[in-house]
Amino acid sequence: MKMLMLINCLVIAGFYAGFGTGQPLVPALIIMGDSVVDTGNNNRRTTLVKANFPPYGRDFFAHNATGRFSNGKLAIDFTAEYLGFTSYPVPYLSQQANGTHLLTGANFASAASGFDDATALLYNAITLNQQLKNYKEYQSKVTNMVGRDRANEIFAGAIHLLSTGSSDFLQSYYINPILNRIVTPDRYSDRLMNIYSKFIQNLYGLGARKIGVTTLPPLGCLPAAITMFTEAGNNTCVERLNRDAVSFNTKLNNTSIYLTNKLPGLKLVVFDIYTPLLNMVMNPVENGFFEARRACCGTGTMETSFLCNARSVGTCSNATNYVFWDGFHPSEAANRVLARNLLVQGIPLIS
Ligand SMILES: *[C@@H]1O[C@H](CO)[C@@H](O)[C@H](O)[C@H]1NC(C)=O
Ligand SMILES: *[C@@H]1O[C@H](CO)[C@@H](O)[C@H](O)[C@H]1NC(C)=O
Ligand SMILES: *[C@@H]1O[C@H](CO)[C@@H](O)[C@H](O)[C@H]1NC(C)=O
Ligand SMILES: *[C@@H]1O[C@H](CO)[C@@H](O)[C@H](O)[C@H]1NC(C)=O
Ligand SMILES: *[C@@H]1O[C@H](CO)[C@@H](O)[C@H](O)[C@H]1NC(C)=O
Ligand SMILES: *[C@@H]1O[C@H](CO)[C@@H](O)[C@H](O)[C@H]1NC(C)=O
After folding, report:
1. Which residue's CA is the nearest one to ligand 3's atom 13?
2. Of 75, 118, 157, 263, whose CB count within 10 A is highest?
């Protein structure tokens, strides 16, 4: 109950900060990762993994398909609003990413990228290492605009959010007949942990002091995973995939504790999106949903990216009560629930 009141206060504070004259709670928001947070960086790339056409974005402002993999807002869009920002961090590869727009942050994420650069390369997405390079370039632009001291304050005060890993498993590891025969999920997770650990240390080296990282979702409950990995007709979450996700998340937690102890002044929060998403899938009605298995787009079994398009047959007319918008991605309604969870868990990053 107390927690609920605290959230309400924060949400209200956020709204006042946003719509009044107040300042956002942090100077900037820096986003890196995959399609869960990509707001349009893949649009002008030669890749099949895009979402800048209808029905994507049909519930977004002006029904605009911006490249977000949802019918409306992503969880980080709500997060930006709650923190009091009046605009979303610009996609770094878009035309708006110039001048003073950059001062409140930027989004470097790219759908189909992973911790492992090899995952991104399979789909010609922007690798995590390249995202980091782009962030460095971003930093020098900001430094040129406001001077080194102010720039360093912005980088140290900004929330840096990393959300990736699902593509490493679903779009690389599980479907690679060689990799998943010679490397166990446990070993593969360890490999990703090494990358994660180096990435956080690099980000810290660039002056980041507030970092959030999301866990893997319940991979086995994503409609496309159910379609790909269970026998026809079995409509339950794939236990094996969920176990792998839980085991990965435990390692992520452990590695993050290690990094927090090692890097002075670093606030590093692991955002658990596994539990709230699983909760929506298992108890849809209590959470305001009636459809938690089938996605809204197309047949709801598999379609994502170019397969989810204006001619997909069967797309639902109203995604409000669907947990999933497409085969891999939550609806705006589910994203709103996730964002509330992020807000509660993220308090250490704004205090
Ligand atoms: C749709 O989004 C694109 C890119 O984000 C933007 O350039 C365009 O102005 C938007 N259109 C409308 C109608 O809002
Ligand atoms: C950003 O670039 C666009 C053209 O690409 C230009 O119209 C706009 O004025 C620029 N904005 C700033 C703040 O420099
Ligand atoms: C569906 O899969 C679950 C575990 O993944 C298993 O327990 C259950 O027996 C299966 N049901 C059918 C009808 O095959
Ligand atoms: C991470 O560890 C903390 C405490 O050690 C625990 O409260 C939390 O539930 C763990 N989160 C995950 C995702 O395992
Ligand atoms: C996580 O850390 C705890 C305590 O330090 C340890 O017991 C556990 O084995 C670790 N788990 C993994 C998966 O590394
Ligand atoms: C979708 O349904 C919700 C209630 O279930 C309603 O509030 C909303 O207006 C509907 N949206 C559209 C676009 O019809």
Report:
1. 234
2. 75
